[in-house]
Fold:
Amino acid sequence: MEKEHAQARPNGPLAGIKVVEFAGIGPGPFCGMLLADMGAEITLLERAGGTFASQLFGGGRKAVANRGKKSLCIDLKHADAKRLVQQLVDDADVVLEGFRPGVMERLGFGPEECLARNPKLIYARMTGWGQSGPLAPRAGHDANYAAIAGVLDTGRHHGGAPWAPPTLVGDMGGGGLVLAWGIACALLEAGRSGVGQVIDAAMCEGAALLAHGLFNLEALGEWQGQCALDSSAPFYDVYECADGLWISVCPLEPQFYRTFVERLGLAADPAFAGQQYDAQRWPAMKVRLDGIFRSQPRAHWESLFADTDDCVWPVLSMKEAPEHPHNKAREAFVDIAGVTQPAPAPRLSRTPGAIRRPPPLLGENTRECLTQMGLSAAEIDRLVESGAVSLPRNA
Structure:
């Protein structure tokens, strides 16, 4: 699979778009990965000591969010390095940064300075709270942003069943994905107007945006306690099986619910007959279903519902998911540099996304990037000697 994805592919829809990404953690790198998957040329500016992200998630080839990027190891505070960054920004379509408000300005690469030099530039800023407001200068993480957005509270569940995966709501969905959407919109508009702009993406606001449907239910007075989606309903929940594995049960529609109870032999049971959405029955129904699913291993329930539309599917671990027949058939996961990871998405018929290179080692492309900028070998050697840039170890 790795060999296949290393082969030449059609140019992605963002081919020719140049992005300067200031290395960070979480949603910023993920946003850059999405752009790289779709063909953008990403120059990743990394510092010699790496980042907290490289310590937490692993650096080099294991840093999945850096796939498709080139690593230029550079000291942003060095005078010579600043001139190099300015040159990169002058030639870029997008600048991507995820520092706290004010950091880029102090480094001399704030949006005012950069747009003055490159009026068509899209300056994409990723923060937890946004560039303004009382929380703007404060630290936070995924669950904090989801909490303030009113979204974390919606993940309540009785018991310790799998329900709310970490980092997805605030960091990746509300952060990186929303920022990538903003960049795509801004690039499209800049192509018409010839003028760039600044994108202020806040994870807190993105998390709230993802939860628009839940706010819809809240407005209708249908959220929490008697809602089909909040784990109150017996037909929208996860159940533990006899082997300690879990099954997801989601037959919301009446026609699916009807065949679901038939498969379980409950069609004539008074507790399951009648109105599916009679919330007064739900607690007793849930207890009954809990006992039923605990009576057999997960494989039994997979087999029982395999040919139905009853919306009953296994809760797979990250190790199991790549081996599921559906995921294998669609090549939903790929192996790059020995790391199994999700393939680019969504799928475009004419200009598909692709992983064009594995995640780079720290500074792996320093010399390549500087050469492409027009620097001679002697000039590069001088920059290395001064500490303005760094080459990979043993290079």
